[in-house]
Write a structure and sequence with these properties.
6 helices, elongated, 232 residues, 5-stranded parallel sheet, 6-stranded mixed sheet, 15% strand
Length: 232
């Protein structure tokens, strides 16, 4: 009897969270019947309960059906907190050892993936109140601190301090609140152990350097043309 009120409370919380994060939501009936992200969350809660009780295959089957229906792939082993919202949902992938806190929001195309082949903690830990933008990728057993923001399209392969905003292909921190200033880990190999990701970061750094040099050369040519009376 005690499980029913708790389940009803969680259902109400999930529906209310959708209203709080999606201005397009109009009625409870519309949210319950038409929100694929909400369907994915509810089916995951069922799959995770089965997984935790040792019914691994049944849990995987439920998650597979959920993926076919919603376009969201959440491994039944992933741990997800309360009031979790997936907006639009299509293309979201959450790995087996991922841990997601309360009041987290993911937009479409987000990947919480792993880079290790070992059977250990290999997926991200997402703190309370985090928002992850569309098509962002978070790889490895990294931690995204509470209330952090991950910009659309960012690739994050190292820990992110609480309260930070992260943007760009290599997920650099551009803003940290005064209340949250923990040390930021800069050793990519230490954080992910993935050499392909490190190679990608080196290429991005090289491209950035070449772009800066090109801008400098263009500015020099402009000055020379201007000094020669051919102002541009």
């Amino acid at each position: 009897m005690n499980e029913r009120p708790r389940l009803a409370e969680r259902v109400r919380e999930d529906i209310q969270a959708v209203f709080e994060h999606d201005p397009a939501a109009r009625t409870v009936a519309e949210v319950v019947l038409c929100s694929s992200g909400l369907h994915a969350v509810w089916l995951h809660r069922l799959a995770h309960a089965l997984w935790a009780r040792g019914l691994k295959l049944v849990g995987r089957l439920v998650s597979t059906v959920s993926r076919l229906i919603t376009g969201v792939e959440i491994h039944p082993g992933a741990s997800i907190g309360r009031r979790f919202v997936i907006d639009h949902g299509m293309g979201v992938v959450i790995g087996e050892t991922a841990e997601i806190g309360d009041d987290v929001m993911l937009y479409q195309g987000v990947t919480l993936g792993g880079v290790s082949m070992e059977k250990t903690k290999r997926h991200p830990t997402i703190g309370d109140g985090v928002v992850v933008g569309a098509n962002a990728i978070v790889l490895g057993a990294v931690e995204i601190g509470a209330a952090a923001r991950v910009g659309a399209g960012a690739v994050v392969v190292r820990d992110v301090p609480a309260g930070s905003t992260v943007v760009g292909l290599t997920g650099r921190v551009i803003e940290t609140t005064e209340r949250h200033k923990p040390a930021f880990r800069t050793d990519l190999a230490e954080s992910s152990g993935d050499h392909d990701v490190r190679a990608l970061e080196i290429l991005v750094e090289r491209i950035t350097s070449l772009e800066e040099r090109l801008e400098g050369d263009v500015a020099t040519v402009r000055r020379q043309l201007h000094d020669g009376g051919l102002g541009i």
